[in-house]
Design brief:
Order of helices and strands: EEEEHEEEEHH
Number of strands: 8
Helix content: 10-25%
Strand content: 35-45%
Number of helices: 3
Structural class: alpha+beta
Strand order of the largest sheet: 4-1-5
C-alpha cells in the first residue's frame, strides 16, 4: 500500500495554466504547495511528467489513511497541553478518539521519546503531558 506524505512542494510547469497531474492543478511557471498530501504514486507521476520539474519535495509529516493530517489543537490552553487534534479538513477529535496509527506521528512530531513502541493509552498520556507553546493570533509577534 502506498504511503501518503504531506509535502512542501515546488513544481515548475512548462504546460498551460490549468494543467493537471496527480490531482493538482498547475499554472505555467513555478507552483508552490505548502502542506499537500501526496501518495508515493502521485509524487512519482509528477516527477515522470516531462512538462513538470519537481524543484522541491520536502516531506513534512505522514498523513492518515484518508490523506488528512493531524495538527495539535490546544484544548483548555491555560496549562499549554495538547488535548485534541484537528485535521486539515476541520474535523475535531480528542486524543482518545484517535487510532494508534494517528497518535504515533503526532507523538513523534512532539518529540516524545519511544513513541514507536508505546501503547495507545501510554501515547495519549504522553501527549497530554507534553507542554506546547501557545501563540495568540491576536498579538503581534
Amino acid at each position: 500500500m502506498s504511503k501518503t506524505i504531506v509535502y512542501a512542494l515546488v513544481v515548475a510547469s512548462l504546460a498551460h495554466d490549468g494543467y493537471r497531474r496527480a490531482g493538482l492543478a498547475f499554472k505555467k511557471g513555478d507552483n508552490t504547495f505548502d502542506g499537500v498530501a501526496l501518495s508515493d504514486a502521485q509524487l512519482a507521476a509528477l516527477k515522470a511528467d516531462t512538462r513538470l520539474a519537481v524543484k522541491k519535495a520536502e516531506p513534512l509529516r505522514e498523513a492518515d489513511q484518508k490523506g488528512r493530517t493531524l495538527e495539535p489543537q490546544l484544548v483548555g490552553s491555560l496549562n499549554g497541553t495538547v488535548g485534541g487534534v484537528v485535521t486539515l479538513d476541520g474535523e475535531h477529535k480528542t486524543l482518545a478518539e484517535l487510532t494508534l496509527a494517528e497518535l504515533r506521528p503526532l507523538a513523534e512530531s512532539l518529540d516524545i521519546e519511544g513513541a514507536k513502541t508505546l501503547k495507545k493509552d501510554e501515547l495519549v498520556a504522553a501527549i497530554e503531558a507534553t507542554q506546547v507553546e501557545v501563540h495568540d493570533e491576536g498579538q503581534d509577534a
